[in-house]
Design goal:
mainly beta; 2 domains; Jelly Rolls; 5-stranded mixed beta sheet; globular; 8-stranded antiparallel beta sheet; 450 residues; Tachylectin-2, Chain A; 0% helix
Length: 450
């Protein structure tokens, strides 16, 4: 049950639902000039409830239009996370009107978790397959979040899902009949999970070209500690996919942190695009009941374009926001609560956003080449519960680049996203000051780019 009810101003360039609760993005796909976003959704309250699939479409990933709800909970269970694919050539045989069906692949969360599909030829009204499940539960408590993808030249569909603390890979020729081809077990435990209950969620597997022309496969997944205080992380590995399973490189393969911020979870890529583009849930389970919400609760991050570059520590992903310059003002006092500013730096520096009430947000680079992101004074009444570990307030992350560079800071009413060093640092945090930040202060070896 929600504790705080006063609603913050709605973000301008981050997706929020018209009403109700959202969390994980699902079924991301680009079709005929439109981006489709599905998401975990409870339309009847601002707290988590029986999961539906929200559906929204956009031409530019900024301006979204909600469509009818795609999936409703029923006797088979709630509709947990999954993915979507366009069945070109109707290999499933589900379409009877000559149009290729859009197929949603998801988890039915009932007495047990099992994988199911629904399909549509108009992209709006979806029919659940009467012969579900497509992948029955093998006897596991946590068995969910199927992500379907293709490997060029394989002629098959591939699927990865989470099975507790490991991943299972499957293959199919028609999206209806699947057989398991491999397993991936992370080496060791994710940070913060020692001696606690934890689970893997929302995996993805996709190819990215390396600077030397090689094709490198990325395994992306989210990790959640279930014991209090909850902790979430997004991790990725670099390696190869042989059509059966993912195999990390022998060295310098990961896991690496996708985003050091606390308020980013379950990102997955869009199907139907030549290059990887992700969208994630911009919040955290640790304060799901204390966020100031009245009409809606939850938002997405900005969409991010991914690429690989070579760093002093080996290959790493970079992330670039899909946000044209000029949509938000470049000065904080023009439209309080909205800012898109690029900062050039050539040494240690700090950048402080603040207001007349004394609330502030600070990002700095110290002499030891560590980023520090501090929102501990970002709200006179913090929305995170008391007693949470320090990492919810202050983030420290080592810099992966050297020399002069740039940082882009996007402030959009309820959150701040930071992209520095060509996107080697990409971080999303919620900020909800009592009054919007309307002043910017710089110190050290940096200046605002004009």
């Amino acid at each position: 049950m929600r504790i705080v009810s006063e609603q913050q101003p709605r973000p301008r360039v981050h997706f929020t639902p018209r009403q109700g609760w959202i969390n994980d993005p699902n079924g991301l796909i680009y079709l005929t000039g439109q981006y489709h976003l599905f998401a975990q959704h409870y339309p009847h309250d601002t707290s988590w409830g029986a999961m539906h699939w929200l559906h929204a479409t956009s031409d530019d990933l900024i301006h979204w239009h909600e469509q009818p709800i795609a999936l409703y909970p029923n006797e088979r269970g709630m509709k947990f996370s999954g993915s979507s694919v366009l069945d070109r050539g109707n290999r499933s045989g589900l379409s009877t009107d000559g149009r290729d069906p859009l197929i949603l692949v998801y988890t039915n969360h009932g007495q047990q978790e099992e994988q199911a599909i629904a399909w549509s030829t108009d992209g709006l009204a979806f029919t659940e397959w009467e012969k579900n499940p497509i992948i029955p539960n093998p006897g596991l408590h946590d068995f969910r979040d199927p992500k379907v993808f293709q490997m060029p030249g394989s002629g098959h569909w591939h699927l990865v899902l989470t099975a507790g603390q490991q991943l299972f890979f499957y293959q199919s020729a028609d999206l209806l009949h699947w057989h398991q081809t491999g397993t991936f077990v992370p080496d060791g435990q994710p940070s913060g999970s020692e001696g606690k209950n934890w689970v893997l969620e929302c995996p993805d597997c996709f190819a990215v070209p390396a600077p030397d022309g090689r094709v490198v496969w990325v395994l992306l997944l989210s990790h959640m500690v279930l014991d209090e205080p909850r902790k979430t992380e997004i991790l990725y590995w670099l390696g190869e996919f042989d059509g059966l399973t993912f195999r990390p490189f022998p060295s310098s393969s990961g896991p690496f942190l996708f985003d050091p911020g606390p308020d980013h979870y379950a990102p997955v890529t869009f199907a139907g695009l030549p290059e990887p583009l992700t969208l994630g849930w911009g919040s955290n389970w640790a304060y799901k009941d204390t966020l100031p919400c009245q009409t809606y609760c939850g938002q997405m991050t900005l969409a991010r374009r991914l690429a690989l570059i070579k760093t002093k520590n080996g290959l790493r992903l970079t992330q670039e926001p899909v946000l044209p310059t000029g949509l938000l003002p470049a000065k904080p006092d023009v439209m309080p609560g909205q800012l898109d500013v690029t900062i050039e730096f050539y040494g240690s520096f700090s950048c402080r956003l603040f207001n007349a009430s004394g609330e502030s947000f600070v990002i700095s680079l110290d002499d030891n080449q560590y980023w520090q992101i501090d929102r501990s004074h970002g709200a006179s009444q913090p929305f995170w519960p008391s007693g949470l570990p320090d990492w919810y307030e202050v983030i420290r992350s080592p810099r992966l680049a050297d020399g002069p560079s740039q940082m882009r800071l996007v402030y959009d009413q309820t959150s701040i996203e930071i992209f520095a060093d060509q996107g080697l640092l990409a971080c999303h945090l919620l900020v909800m000051p009592g009054k919007a930040f309307d002043q910017l202060e710089m110190a050290g070896a940096a200046r605002v780019q004009h």
